[in-house]
Design goal:
353 residues, Rossmann fold, seven-stranded mixed sheet, 7 strands
Length: 353
Amino acid sequence: MATLLRCRPIIAPPTYSFNHQPSLSSANFRIRASPLLRRSRHRGLRMAVAAALETPMEQQEQQQLKKGIAEFYDESSGVWEDIWGEHMHHGFYEPDSRVSGSESDHCAAQIRMIEESLRFAAVPEEAEKRPKKVVDVGCGIGGSSRYLARKYGAKCHGITLSPVQAQRANALAAAQGLADQAFFQVGDALNQPFPDGEFDLVWSMESGEHMPDKPKFVSELARVAAPGATIIIVTWCHRDLGPSEESLTKWEKDHLDKICKAYYLPEWCSTSDYVKLLQSLNLQDIRTADWSANVAPFWPAVIRSALTWKGFTSLLRTGMKTIRGALVMPLMIEGFNKDLIKFSIITCKKALN
């Protein structure tokens, strides 16, 4: 029996009884409209323009997707925390390294993912330059926010679609003595509940893949960023298309569609698609990297933990959404192995003027 991979929570988690390619093709109308959104100075006007460009069917589909995402994480977050701890994201490992099944290896790898992301984005460490206000977009149960609050002494605000996650994140912040530094609420990444230019670090760790409107997602990240702020997006992408390709192959589309249905994802996009969106917003110092090799041990480790007695019984106590998610984990591994799925980091800075 595989060793249970468990990062121990600070306080016992509650028991839950349950109780891509937008290769921009599916969103062309939104891409074409983006200059209008950029030129609009007032947030209300930008949102009104964006809303007017969406058909009622698209708005309904987005609401259904958001509802599914919230319910998925309401159901699955307790199991994840019990087995993997407070960080709901991949770990960062050396490529081709031999990784044991010990919980310390994987907890350390998840912390390293945060540190490597900060290093890649060149977030300053000096006291006078370090981030003072951080937004965590798609915060899960707040692991990254609390880590950043401790590291920088910053005020961190996290948003999630899941009421269960927001409540748990605040409980953990209080238990860790961070109630006056880390704050969590239910909020929509496509319509963030914050003023323009509010944060000097905008953090999105593995939430971008859930966003049904990538232009609006990126526009909101830029909107809440203060002049000179750093924006960090770590997300799942599909491979970049070749010069002669207009779309992914049928097999690739079908493969991603199966994953989408289990994890409540819209169509995927590529890293280069993100770069084009950032360029359209005049963001600076855009950098990307493919960290797929660095996260390769993650999904096999999650599968091993699910196959332990505790992992198996925990899954049975949740619900079908979580079980469906567990059943498609081999498809994630296959997607990585066939270079279809990419684990990407994309960073940039907002201009000072």
